[in-house]
Design goal:
By secondary structure, this protein is mainly alpha-helical. It is built from 7 helices and 5 strands. The protein has 2 domains: 75 residues, no CATH class; 116 residues, Aspartate Aminotransferase, domain 1. α4 runs antiparallel to α7, α5 crosses α6 and α6 runs antiparallel to α7. The mean pLDDT is 92.
Length: 214
């Protein structure tokens, strides 16, 4: 999703490598404003690790104060080249279209979106009454090799999250929705084959969706 750190005057922004940077977890990235640095410099950190003053000092040597995950940094180099080649505005637009397509497909099946303002990196829907999230996610993986995630804490067992971030493309979204249709059908949920796929493709093709919500 669009994020303009300087223009929006964000003082401290933390990013995890496992999200849209297309890497395994293990790296964190911080953008720190001059205002935030002033706060940090005035604070005497009680910890040896996670010391931003130490990190800033080592940055002058193009290094880190502690041993980093070298293999992930090499992977990051490849991921950033890919993002730069596509262009960040194009990356934002691709994620917007995939998000809208996935939402349209999910709603065309009569499933309820969890959020009224969904993030563009994933689509979360409520588990239909009479079904279990583990059955939906389990069959998606066992039959199609598609990994989805459930809810946590008070949402455990109540939602299913479909990720479409990073190097995911439009075909991944369409294929994922087709798999979801078949899995829901196997579990006894009444679906019309192709309904979700059609709704998603209409969004991706720039057409107005004709797949009314059930």
């Amino acid at each position: 999703m669009e994020c303009r750190t300087d223009a929006w005057q964000i003082d401290l922004l933390c990013v995890g490598s496992q999200k849209a940077l297309m890497l395994p977890p293990g790296l964190a990235f911080l953008a720190v404003s001059p205002k935030a640095w002033a706060k940090i410099e005035a604070f005497d950190a009680p910890a040896f690790y996670f010391n931003l003053k130490a990190a800033r000092k080592k940055m002058l040597e193009f290094d880190t104060p502690y041993t980093p995950a070298h293999t992930l940094i090499l992977g990051l180099r490849a991921a950033l080249k890919r993002i730069r080649a596509e262009g960040i505005e194009a990356v934002w637009e691709r994620h917007r279209r995939m998000s809208e397509a996935c939402q349209a497909g999910v709603q065309a099946l009569g499933l309820e979106l969890f959020s009224s303002r969904p993030a563009e990196g994933l689509t979360a829907f409520r588990v239909p009454q009479g079904l279990k999230d583990g059955d939906i996610r389990g069959k998606l993986f066992e039959r199609f090799g598609i990994t989805t995630v459930g809810g946590q804490d008070k949402l455990k067992g109540k939602i299913v999250r479909i990720g479409h971030m990073g190097y995911t493309d439009e075909l991944d979204v369409v294929a994922g929705l087709a798999a979801l249709e078949m899995v829901l059908n196997d579990l006894g949920y009444d679906i019309e084959p192709g309904r979700a796929v059609t709704a998603a493709q209409q969004v991706l093709l720039g057409q107005k969706s004709t797949a009314a919500v059930r």
